[in-house]
Specification:
Blueprint lengths: L3 H4 L74 H14 L2 H34 L6 H42 L6 H7 L4 H32 L1 H29 L3 H7 L4 H11 L4 H37 L5 H46 L1 H13 L25 H6 L5
Helix pairs in contact: 2-10, 2-11, 3-4, 3-11, 4-6, 4-8, 4-11, 6-7, 6-8, 7-10, 8-9, 10-11
Length: about 425
């Protein structure tokens, strides 16, 4: 890890510092770039900066105190507190709702609608064949119908994985740019994600395939014990199932937390998949419980709010038809059932979109926070913001700067700058 105290002054080395009193005997030349009138050195900021360049606001440039690092966008450019990460996961939707909540709402609605249409049509078709089947063919056709419904249900699941991966990449980029005070439209974020969406979808499909294969192996083993082992096999199968469930839960928590930053690394550092896995594993060392706790807490908040909102609908479903039509006619029950179904779908789509955005933003915020703490990313972000404020657009993307490199303004004509130019510059 770099020495942050020695690096921080590079942000403001060229800013002259003036003595607060403005008087006194002339002292030695100021090490901050301008002749000083006092030999008293300027106060240091917590980030390692000095004098007027260390911050903005009252006290900055007066020597009377220090101000915290600026907050040009979504979060302040300093290591993030627990509450800051938690709040920012939801604020990202309010700050730029179009590419986040709007995009999530559209794709969530499409998935729900497509799932209902595909599964509904296939189910009606499959079981209509069963009802019309001859008695001697009923068992075969029923088995085929069930298999057809299961296959139809897989299609929306695969589609959900793909579009959720795309949204996760878009939200990760939005969080990264919002941290620097930038606000891009969906088209700009999509251009920034160019070349990375395939890797992100591949990662999501790989995780899904591994989980599915592990489940099938364990389920097949338990089924074989129950079918062939007699009473002893049933007992062993039940015990094995319980142990497998506990092991799967522990493994999901551990691996899911250690690899939670892979999408952010893929999108922001633009690495290969294998390198992104190693990078996420390394970054979460020492931050496992913080990463796990915040991700789980965001999920619990979203699910709790959704449950509170849906509770009145459950009451309406139970008592609404009796209140609207006390006679208990089928027409009243049908009307209230349709209303409740439509409201339930709308609420599930809205809160599904909120959950997707919040749960995608949380790992990106944790990725930025951990890099600030481990690699001094906050200093690189400060340099980038200051350079952009002065009109210097040749600085490279700060998220590509690791702990062993520093941002150096370069001419866009040089090979290094051409290779590492930010895609949104």
């Amino acid at each position: 890890m770099r020495d942050r105290a020695n690096e921080g002054h590079s942000v403001t080395d060229n800013t002259p510092w003036q003595s607060p009193s403005g008087g006194g005997a002339a002292g030695p030349p100021s090490p901050y770039g301008a002749p000083g009138k006092s030999s008293i050195p300027p106060p240091a900021s917590p980030a390692g900066g000095t004098g007027a360049g260390a911050g903005t606001g009252a006290g900055a440039g007066t020597g009377a105190g220090w101000t915290p690092p600026p907050k040009p966008g979504l979060v302040p450019l300093r290591p993030l507190a627990f509450a800051t990460v938690l709040a920012a996961a939801f604020q990202v939707m309010r700050r730029n709702p179009g590419p986040t909540f709007g995009f999530a709402l559209i794709i969530t609605g499409v998935i729900v609608l497509l799932s209902g249409v595909v599964i509904g049509l296939v189910t009606v078709f499959a079981f209509s064949r069963t009802f019309n089947a001859a008695p001697e063919d009923i068992d075969t056709i029923t088995a085929g119908s069930v298999a057809l419904v299961i296959l139809a249900a897989i299609v929306p699941v695969v589609l959900s994985i793909v579009v959720s991966s795309i949204l996760q990449g878009i939200v990760s980029l939005e969080v990264a740019r919002a941290t620097l005070g930038e606000k891009l439209k969906l088209s700009g974020l999509w251009r920034s994600a160019r070349g990375r969406i395939g890797a992100l979808i591949g990662w999501s499909m790989l995780v899904t395939a591994v989980v599915l294969i592990a489940f099938l192996i364990v389920a097949g083993l338990i089924g074989a014990l129950v079918a062939l082992g007699g009473p002893a096999g049933i007992a062993i199968g039940v015990i094995l199932g319980l142990l497998a469930g506990l092991a799967a839960t522990a493994g999901f928590i551990w691996l899911g937390t250690k690899l939670a930053l892979v999408p952010s690394v893929l999108m922001l550092e633009r690495t290969r998949l294998a390198d992104a896995v190693r990078r996420s594993w390394s970054l979460t060392n020492g931050f496992f419980w913080k990463t796990f706790g915040i991700i789980v807490l965001v999920s619990v908040i979203v699910q709790t709010v959704a449950s509170i909102i849906s509770f009145p609908l459950n009451l309406i479903a139970g008592f609404g038809s009796a209140l609207i039509d006390p006679s208990g006619s089928s027409e009243g029950f049908l009307v209230i059932s349709i209303i409740v179904l439509v409201l339930s779908v709308v609420i599930s789509v809205v809160f599904g979109a909120i959950a997707l955005v919040a749960q995608s933003a949380t790992p990106a915020l944790l990725y930025i926070d951990i890099r600030m703490r481990k690699e001094g990313l906050d200093l690189e972000l400060l340099r980038f913001v200051e350079a952009r404020q002065t009109g210097n657009r040749s600085v490279i993307d700060p998220y590509l700067v690791t702990s062993t490199r520093a941002i150096q303004p370069q001419s866009a004509s040089t090979p290094a700058a051409a290779d590492q130019q930010t895609p949104w510059s």
